[in-house]
Design goal:
The complex is a heterodimer of chains A (250) and B (92). With 250 residues, chain A is α/β, with parallel strands linked by helices. Chain A has a single domain (3-249), classed as Spore Coat Polysaccharide Biosynthesis Protein SpsA, Chain A (Alpha-Beta Complex). Chain A contains 9 helices and 9 strands. In chain A, helix 2 packs parallel to helix 3 (61-72) and helix 8 (196-209) packs parallel to helix 9. Chain A is globular and about 50 Å long. Chain A starts with a helix and ends with a helix. Chain B has one domain. Chain B has helices at residues 3-22, 32-38, 41-62, 68-87. Chain B is rod-shaped. The mean pLDDT of chain B is 92. The chains are: A alpha/beta (250), B mainly alpha (92).
Amino acid sequence: MASRKTLHPNRDSEDKYSILLPTYNERENLPLIVWLLVKYFGESGYNYEVIIIDDGSPDGTLEVAEQLQKIYGEDKILLRPRAKKLGLGTAYIHGIKHATGNFVIIMDADLSHHPKFIPEFIEKQKEGDYDLVSGTRYKGNGGVYGWDLRRKLISRGANFLTQVLLRPGASDLTGSFRLYKKEVLESLVERCVSKGYVFQMEMIVRARQLNYTIGEVPISFVDRVYGESKLGGNEIVSFVKGLITLFATT
Amino acid sequence: MTKLVEWLFGVSVVVAAWALVSFDLLDLSLPQTYREVAWPMPLYLLVSFGCYSLATVGYRVATFNDCDEAAKELQGQIKEAKEDLRKKGLKM
């Protein structure tokens, strides 16, 4: 059949993409995000694996992950759980150790990042041989769903302030939907010490400092469907602290 | 050079240039009009930057895309995924 060739246009490529999914109490979301990943990688034909790093969720996320592994196969779904919650940076280090792909994709497992953008990330990366490709809510068709005016104002204001102070060469600093060359992620993760929102910001600021090239793809960010998303005073204070730290040290 | 140092450097250059002209530190005997223009310049710069910032942030908030389509698409796919996963034997 002639159509078979176009069905999996990228199957012969030697590139492999490892998706790192750090989870904590994502029993509801995990099957859905995995289903979507399988769907879009199946359609685009790229070689991939999903690495689930569960930090001892009490809600049984790991058990659901084991079922998914049975359904989709041990070569596609890898489980690398840890005993307790240890933070995002170490989750990435832990995940990279087990990743067999030459590219690593990091994203949230709460469905705010849609896997349909991954083929665009990959094309973008190939287009300019970028060291990292970052999803951006602030450019082109990018955007958010489920944010009120206050949240939008804080987000835009914080982003503007950061752009003025740090001139990072990327429009979305606190987003965490990104594709990295594996060795680039390794070298960045080693250098980054921040937590939370600031961790993602530090990653991209250090990337620029090390002269890595950055590509951007507009994404739509759909705020948590299940579970809660918060932006309180604590987050804002830690963001400002992180911004000042980066301002003085990078 | 950290961003902080870059900023300090930039600000000192501007302040030095401003002081030179405003107070005629090098005795260049500049025309009086130069000094009169230079003297309130920092305030003008600050006010214009403030206006620019407010306008930019306001415009960006107003034009922030609401991705209603994306949310609808996702809801549809969640339904589809749940059915398919149930068929494949997943116990939620």
